[in-house]
Design a protein that fits this description.
The protein has three domains: 256 residues, no CATH class; 49 residues; 41 residues, no CATH class. Helix content is 43%, strand content 14%. It contains 15 helices and eleven strands. It has a three-stranded antiparallel sheet with strand order 2-1-11. A hairpin with a 2-residue loop joins β5 and β6.
Length: 407
Amino acid sequence: MSFVQRMLGASAAPEVRAITHSDLFGYNLENSHSHHGVHVSAEMAMQSSAVFACVRIISDSVSTLPLDFFREVKEARVPFRPIPVWAEFQGPTRRIDTISAMVVSMLLHGNAFAAIYRDRNDRIIDVMVLDPTTVSVELVEGEIRYRVLGGALLTAMDILHIPAMMMPGDLVGMSPIACARESISLSLAATTYGGAFFANGAVPGVAVEVPGELSDQGIRQLKKSWNDVHKGAANSHKLAVMTEGAKFTKVSVNPDDAQFLQTRQFQVSDITRIFGVPPHLVADASNSTSWGSGLAQQNTTFVQHTLRPMAERLETGFNWLMRSEGLPKNTFSKLVLDGLLRGDTMQRLESYEVGLRNGFYTIDEVRAWEDMPALTEEQKPKPAAPPAPPTTDTEESEEESEEDNDD
């Protein structure tokens, strides 16, 4: 039976039970409504500029890392060739798009699912990322099974599942959007409030108070005469003469409205905390020195604590694909983060110097990290000639005696 038939087939299935957060812990992460009355789904969350920026930064950073395959031979790592067929990711941007879709799925839904397409010999020929909302995870007689679009139950040979952070004993990863719906909904509510304030908040800049009542024609005439004299930059400092008890009043925004910007500013920091992104990467430099000793240190911390865990989750999934088609256990995948961890140019040069001097880096490794070709045999430095052995006192006295005899 083909994958598509198994995925959408109507074959009889044993009695199953889907395990949910509510079953295990007594609360439901799928309830997408917050206390602020804002519906928070993955699509709605992406309308928050801070959420969009965090997801874009992480997914673009991970999906553009170099992906390579290796095997361990006598405690040494050597390239594994040819690379698996599925890892060739046909198309100009297919590798980036595939990995990016997996990362986005984990960031928004807590899980990435991909359909595994195999040939008759169980060799994987393609991997296609699925919409996480169409896949359910179920426990059947102690085995994890997957159901796509309400179809037949599938095994791990058919579905690659890469969960994000998981609750103990759960089968699926936790959705950051569901867990942090209150913070995200506050950001969305603030955005909605701002739009309504500027669209509908008809707050004038100044007002002229006139005692008594004015007819519509009188109001129009008063506005026209005032604008004729004072409207425009050239008339901004002209003397105003108020008659018949009229008063000039400047209208200001009330304190609650004035706190709107502070609320939005706080929500940016709150959302970046959820995704583990330094605020300066999403154009929030208000607290740029609060994390680490500077921007370079913040970037390194971002790589270590946000990108590295995400990369290792993907590597674990790719390694499972390699095992499932019979490749030996000493083969593995690697998303190369080394270049991001080495810092700026001066930091990299200093680390290279230490590594070369102590012998745990080679010149070709350093050149490869800097995207430079390996040295040819003619370019490689020739080993220095060994120094001449030191002469002894006896040899020096014999040489002096020979010189005396010659004289």
